[in-house]
Structures are given as C-alpha cells and as structure tokens.
Amino acid sequence: MTVLLDPTSERSPTIRPRLPRPDSLDGLTVGILDIAKARGDVFLYRLGERLSGRGIAVKHYAKPTNTRVAPLPLRQQIAAEVNLVIEGLSD
Amino acid sequence: MDGLVAVVKRDCPTCVMAALVLGELARRRGLTVYTQDDPSFPETVPGRIDDTVLDVSHRLKIEIVPTLIRLEKGREVGRTFGWDRGEWERLSGIAGLGEGLPETRPGCGAKNVEPGVLERLKIRFNETGLKSRRITLGEEEDEHDAMFARGWSDGLPLVPPIEERVLRMLDGTSRDPQEVLGLVPPDLAPATVEKIVINAVMAGCKPEYLPVVLAAVEAVLEDEFAMHGVLATTMFVGPVVVVNGPIRQRIGMNAKGNALGQGNRANAGIGRALQLVIRNIGGGRPQEVDRATLGNPGKYTYCFAEDEEGSSWEPLAVERGVAPGRSAVTVFAGFGLQGVVDQKSRDPDSLSRSFAESLKAIHSVKLAPACDAMLVVCPEHHRTFKEAGWSKARLYEELYRLCEIPGDELVAGAKGIAEGGPASLAGKTVNKFRPGGLLIVRAGGEAGMFSGIIGGWSAGGARGSVPVTKEVRN
Q1: Four-point Cα dihedral A62, A66, A72, A75, nearest 10
Q2: How far B185 CA lies from chain A's nearest CA (Å)?
C-alpha cells in the first residue's frame, strides 16, 4: 500500500469530489447510454423522447455488451459530445 | 532494564574480536546482547536477542557497534562504543577484561543508521516531524495515475513523494521543515520547506539540489518579482532561473553545450520543482489563474547555469551584488529563446550592432520600451569581446545606446503596421529597454556563433516584474 505526502496546501479533500449536479438542463446536451441490458433500450428511448419534447438536446449511445466496460473510443466520444449522461444500470 | 546492554553485529570485526569478552560479561554480569545482523552471533552469549528489525537499536540511538551501555533503574548511566578496555572495565566493574586484545579498537557503523534504514525506522517510530497530510492510495490504484488524477502533475510523470524520499530530500538542507519561505500565489499559501521538499521529490531532484530550489522559491516570492502577475498574465512568461557560483559544479549543472536544453538532471529538476511549487502549493494552474494565451515550453522547467570558467566578465550574480565565490540564483520572468545568428562579425562593434538589431525585435519591432531581456552570449561570441578588451559594462553601455529607436518608426501605422505608440513619439527617440532591463550571461557550447535572447514580460520594471537574485544557503 503506497502512502504519499500531500504536495498541496491541503485546501481540497484527498478524495476527488463528484462534479456538482446542474441546476437545470437548459442549454446542455444529455447523453443516453444503453448498456445492452434487456429492454433498457425501450425505457431509455422513451426517456430520450420526453427530454427532446422539453427542447433538450439528446444523443443516444450503446455499449456492445453489458459484460464489459464501454470501449475507450465510445467513452471519449461521449465525454466530448455531451454534458451529462443517463444510463440504465439494470433490467 | 537494568545492568549491561551491548549491541553488536557479526559483520563488524571489532564485535567478532570482542565476542569472548561479551560471553564473559554475560556469565558474570548478566549482560544482554542485541545482535543486528546474524541472530546466531555471538555464539559466546546463548541468550542473545535478535534485533535484526533494529527497533531496540533505534530506541537506544546506537550509531557504532559494539556499543556497551550501563543501565540503572531503566536509565542510562554510561555508554562506550568500539572496544576500549578501560571503558569496558569501568562500565562492567570487572578488571582484566579481554586478555591479549589491544587496548582499543574502533567499531563499525551500526545498521540502524545506514542510509535508507534510518528513514524507515523514523517513519515506523513516527519521528519524522513531517506534518503533511498522508494520502493512502487504493490497493489497485496505479501510483502514477493517482498523482495525475489529483492534479499534481505538470503533464509529465512525477516521482512519488513517499515519506522515505521526502526525508532523504530534507537532508539536503539544514533548515527547519516548518520554516516558511513566503506565500505562494495565487492562493497565498505558505511555502514551508517541507512542502517545497515534497514538490522537489516529485520533480526528480536530488537532495543536493535542494538549496538551489529553496533559493529560487525565495526569489520568486519576493514582492518585486510579482509572481502572481507572472503566473496570471496572458503573456508567455514564467520564471527563468540562472545559477551562479560553486554549487553549479558541485551538483553537476550544465552551463555548456545545450545549457538551455534537455538532458541534465539538475537543470531540469530545479526548474521543474519551482513550477510544481507554484502549481501545487500556490494552486496556479493553466486555464485557471494562469491565463497564458500560448505559454512557453520553459513553463515545464527553465533553469541553467552560467559558464563562468573562461569568462572575462563578472558572473551575473556578482554583477548584482553577490560576493565572488558565493552561490546564488537569479530569477527572471522570461520566455522561449530567440536565436541571434552571427557567424561573420569579428569585431565587437559589428557584433553588438547585430545583438541590438535582434533585441529591438522582441515582442514587436513597433513596441518600445517593450520588456526586459536576458542576452545569453555564447563562448565564441564572448571571445570577440574578450579579445577586444570589452568589459560587460561596456557591452551594456553599447547595447543601450544601440537600442535607441527613432520614435517615427514606432508610431502606430508606421511601416504599414497598426501596432505602435502614439503620434507624439514622432521626432523623439525611445529606448527599447528601461535602465537595468537588460541582463547578460554567458553560456553554451564551445562551437557555434549562436547566442540567444530570452524575452521578458511587457510590464518590465517596478510596475511588473523585476529580476531577483538570492544567495544559496544550506
């Protein structure tokens, strides 16, 4: 187990905080990631429809299989194209 | 613990020589023997105690083996090290010890104070005095990725600042780890020696570089250097560190071929440590408070030594008031390198004109006064001045004179360039540099008529950043 000495002025926590949730989705692009669990696509498609209906930009993505982490190119594409991601974790 | 205690190791010929005496003391006085390396030594003492983990040795502060200690009511009342018949007899109260042995024989270094071992023991006994927060990485976490993820890196891999390395780096200075050298912008966080040491470890420094790193940090934190502005400006600059004096050679800095380039650990590590201090202690990061439009590659590291040997000129630090023979750093808010190629000038008049024409182009040919500048004169160019008997002061004088620019050339719109000064400059003469805004150093390889100009910050002088020189302290 490696123990490092903090080189900073120790003004932030050692565990990186999560990004704050946006107050509103206005002007943001939402990514919808289908992780390939059964019928997840049905639920996520409907969610995408409802967001689009409210005028929010939506982009759809799909993992090839739920048994592996998303391929690196897909993760990079999502990070470059959207501001937040919704994914269905289970069926 | 009362009575006599000895600490020994088999790897010490004096301990081996004294083994029979140890056996006699164990029989007659109840001597307790701790052995540092081989638990079967000394065979003369059946009840010897294994101290290969060195905990007892460390607690007893053993430096030499054999050490013989007399304890009364748990308190030490006498100690001797090495073999010294008189001392051993006095401590044990037994006369005639070690028949046939010499009167005295020096011992050997104890294992618990060997380099690397002492650091580990101090850590185990929580005696390091280091106050920084400990960050325990996850079992599966890659230590290099972990440091990037925490934002500590300048973009290149870092040496992990584990406690052993930090303690070894601290040996490079006699200063107290909690001494504060100044407040690091932009957060104005205190620069303790300890925090600087941690960043020097990450930068790849050796302990002997540390006094130079500390002097460079002190220098940039002086108010007149304006480190906050140097960091925050949209312009190109970062701190450039020039090292003078004997420490250059002691730590193996490069002042010769490729002095401003890659490949020398001291040059690279010192400049990088300074940048990491600004980043990690001060919180100064690109696209945050560092608003540089382009920046420059020297913001990874920009440090070199002046080539004083063979120079007919006084070194930069001496020129700036440091006594000859002392080591010092000078920090300058600078960027990049503009080459001055002149392979034909063989007299100082021609060469100084060549320098001046290049100097007048810094930032823009339309701006004067523009910024401070550091002229790095290569040995072949320096030779021309040396042979003609030109002192450094003479070259300064000529360059300031040659950098007088007719205001007509500087007016906005002149030369078909919108950049420029007000129409009121017409008919006047303006110098490219403020008085004292030009620095000259000598560095570089023996071959090549290629000097260089390190441009400065537009707000040179008291309104901006003034170069600062600090003597290197141990």
Answers
A1: 50
A2: 11
Residue whose C-alpha is closest to residue B187's, from B294, B288, B301: B288
Q: What pTM was computed for the model?
A: 0.86
Residue A16: closest CA among chain B residues belongs to which residue?
Answer: B150
Pick from B457, B460, B453, B458: nearest CA to B337: B453
Contacts with B136 from chain A: Cβ below 8 Å: 1-3
Chain A neighbors of B161, CB-CB under 8 A: 4-5, 7
Of A1, A5, A10, the CB nearest to B166: A5
d(CA A18, nearest CA chain B) in Å = 13
Other Cβ atoms closer than 10 A to A68: 10
Please, what is the average pLDDT of chain B?
96
Task: Report the chain B residue with the minimal C-alpha distance to residue A14.
Answer: B135
Which one, of B190, B92, B393, B161, lies nearest residue A4 by Cα? Answer: B161
pLDDT tens digits for range B342-394: 999 999 999 999 999 999 999 999 999 989 999 999 999 999 999 999 999 99
Closest-CA residue to B203 (of B165, B237, B235, B244): B165
Note if the bond before B186 is cis, omega within 30 degrees: yes
Distance CA B244, CA B156 (A): 28
Tens digits of residue pLDDT in B219-251: 999 999 999 999 999 999 999 999 999 999 999
Is B76 in the A-facing interface, judged by CB distances under 8 Å?
Answer: no
Tell me the one-letter amino acid at B425: L
Per-residue pLDDT reduced to its tens digit, A12-61: 877 777 888 899 999 999 999 998 888 888 999 999 999 999 999 999 99
User: How big, in percent rounded to 5, are the helix, strand and coil portions of chain B?
Assistant: 35, 20, 45
Q: Which residue has the tokens 């890196």?
A: B153
* Length of chain B counted residue by residue: 474
User: Model confidence over B173-219: pLDDT tens digits?
Assistant: 999 999 999 999 999 999 999 999 999 999 999 999 999 999 999 99
Q: Which residue of A has its CA nearest to B280?
A: A8
In B, which residues are within 8 Å of A7 by CB distance? 132, 152, 161, 195, 198-199, 202, 276, 280-281
Mutate to test the interface with A, among B140, B141, B150, B217 (most CBs of A within 10 A): B150
CATH value of B3-124 in 3.40.570.10, 3.30.365.10, 3.20.20.210, 3.40.30.10: 3.40.30.10
Predicted-assembly ipTM surpassing the 0.95 threshold: no
pLDDT tens digit sequence for B65-95: 999 999 998 899 999 999 999 999 999 999 9
Domain coordinates in residue numbering, chain B = 3-124, 215-471
Closest CA relative to residue B110, chosen from B69, B82, B71, B76:
B82
Interface residues from chain A to B (CB-CB < 8 Å): 1-11, 14, 16
Q: Which of B266, B267, B243 is nearest to B327 (CA)?
A: B243
